[in-house]
Amino acid sequence: MNFYGNIVNDNDNPQNLGNDYGKVMLVPRIIMHEYIDDIKLEFKIGTKKQLYKVKDIIELYRRIKNKEFYKYGAKLEFLHDIDAFESESKNILNYFLKYAEIMDSMKENKYSGYRYYGQSINYSSISLNGGALEEFFEILKDTYVEIENDYTTSKILLCTKAPDIKFEIEKVNSQEYIIHPNIDVYDSYKIIKGKENVFMIKENRLYRCNKQVQETTLKLLNVFKKNITQEIRFPKEYFESFFSIVMPKMRDDIVLDKIETKEIEQYIPKKLGVKLYLDYDEANNIVLNVRFCYGDV
Question: Among 134, 191, 202, 284, which is most exposed with the fewest C-beta within 10 angstroms?
Answer without folding.
Answer: 284
